[in-house]
Specification:
Elements: E1 67-82, E2 88-98, E3 107-113, E4 118-124, H1 152-155, E5 161-164, E6 195-198, E7 205-211, H2 217-223, E8 226-232, E9 252-262, E10 268-269, H3 279-284, E11 310-313, E12 316-317, E13 320-322, E14 327-334, E15 341-348, E16 364-369, E17 372-380, E18 383-385, E19 390-396, E20 405-410, E21 432-437, E22 465-475, E23 481-487, H4 505-508, E24 518-520, E25 534-542, E26 548-552, E27 557-565, E28 594-601, E29 607-614, E30 618-622, E31 636-639, E32 643-651, E33 655-661, H5 664-667, E34 672-677
Parallel strand pairs: 1-4, 3-8, 9-14, 13-21, 22-25
Antiparallel strand pairs: 1-2, 4-6, 5-7, 7-8, 9-10, 9-11, 11-12, 14-19, 15-18, 15-20, 16-17, 16-19, 20-21, 22-23, 23-24, 25-32, 26-31, 26-33, 27-30, 27-32, 28-29, 33-34
Length: about 675
Amino acid sequence: MFTRRHFIKVTAATGAALSFNLVGNLDPLGAVSAAPRLSDPAAQPMFSTFAPNALDPTFVFRSPNNKYKIAMTQQVQMTGLVDAVGQPLSTTVWGYGRNGPGGTWPGRTFVAERDEPVEVMWQNKLPFGHLVPVDTSLHWAYSLPGYEHYSIPVDGPPVVTHLHGGHSRDIYDGNPEFFFSPGWEIRGPRWVEKKYFYDNDQPAGTLWYHDHALGITRLNVYAGLAGFYILRDEFDTGKPGNPLDLPAFPYELALAIQDRMFTETGALFYPAFPGDPFYDDFITGEGAILPPEIFPGGGPTALAEFFGDHMLVNGSIWPVTEVEPRNYRLRFLNGCDSRFIVAQFFEVPPGATDLTSATGPLPFTVVGSDQGLASSPTTVDTLLMETGSRYDVVFDFKSVDPGNRVIMKNIGGDEPFGGGIPGPQVFGQTDRIMAFDVNQPLDTAVLDPNPTGINFGPIIPVPTRLRKVALFEGTDEFGRLQPLLGTAEPATDFQGNPINWPATPPYTGAGLVGQMDGSIAWHSQTTENPALDSTEEWEIWNVTGDAHPVHLHLVNFEILGRQHIMWDSATNDQDRVLDPAGVTAPAPNGDGTYLVTQPVVQHNGLLGQGFRIQAPTYGAAIPAPGEYVENAPKDMVTALPDQITRIKATFDRPGRYVWHCHILSHEDHEMMRVLHVGPGA
């Protein structure tokens, strides 16, 4: 059983700076050589680059008829990085831009109105090759049957854009198998058409768009393919004098937080080879055996998580923004691969870059989250933001002495999140995200509104079905850690009929017969098959050692609560696996939940190892921690280890969607499953 992993091996190599001398292997896909030294985050300027506001009118896509042609392109961008003598360094990135050239990271912001459809033709104009190493051993776009002869160097990178949080029809949802290559020369097996239509038939909220291509989402987003999509309605108009007294531009900011590593020359760096950060943790340390004919020189290989040592906001390292002493609306997106952010705000003297003389944490008010405004405002001084989530807060800078600075701090730590706060910090600078300088004179001609009427929140009917799903950690065919989804009960379809394992040799040969249950890879038979227009309560059983940010496409949901998993007393914190016969492992005592091992059929027909939940037993209910604000329409939920997290949602559009962990490195390595609404799964 794979449980908690500690990100401590990397610390011995870091000290004040990460400067690994990396193995000189050349990525066979022609990406960056794995031999450069890394940028030292301690040598980079902090709070000297101004933070772009993704809601600045100059950064918003405009169209008189709501029709757009948006291209994915490669460009050079300044992030605030400097070299050893302080000269600015440029970084090659991928971005979204209007009609070809002019792409940016993040992509420019869409601002749409409720019930006014938007049409987008997403164009792949990326060069052949990739900016970072690609592991072609995974279940990815060009590993699908009939696509194996394609490659990124010869045929270009596959992409597909997902509007995260959008109530989209299935053919426009950005399904990972709807990918397409440059010029649409190669089209995924479920590709339909070039134009995507977004109905926008939902309340106002902070959505975002990002790449979702099968097996390389983490790499395409890391290269820069992400941006905001803000939806307005008659309440949240985005204009001064709006009915809810919410601050409006220039007092409304959209801020995407991401972490990265760079080489000392400014190039994006992504670990994938021996000697790279985290390789020992997830490959050598886990006992994985990588065949040299597939992994020459030990890579490139996917690693189970990624944590960068540079923090960026809207593509700028540790930026600063200047504010007036008034209320500001701050729309935060956690766009990191694996990093949970636990945000606090501290007041420091002018120009300070650390927290040695800080006052705080300061209070702020959460008014909304992923897909809309909350049932009521919540004032806190600490806020958990899981990867992929959005939080809408109002911060009153009148509470800060004029001229002082506010530093946004992260106490979430630099390793897989298990629920503990604060988390361990591995890197020296990732405890700070950005700063706000309260040095602008108050514009008395503009009212300083204080939000009222925030009484929206999730409105979900009473469920008619209970569904039990599960989060597992197993191993793939090479012994690498493989996070997996699955069921915590025998699977049934939308009519209640059993869903059986495929009667094909890879499954029958592995002993997987009868009704499906336990760990299941992405490509296997669909098990999450709600009836159209049904409301379901989902129990998410997390039997791993880490928290996972779970995302369902199509829907928004209400978080109902959490409770402990009661484990059989014959298990222990490090191993929950028992053998009912007591031959290969201890026998259960019969007083709680335990796991048994079972094979996992991989995309190539080989076998990994997973688990199945036995004797599921419920423990006590758990009150939500104070730093979790969950009273808004959510499409992300933090499922904590050893707990059952309960949500409910209405599935009101038919067709093929997905649900997955939003740790991008997890979803790319099989922690994603089809969610098919209605018949036809």
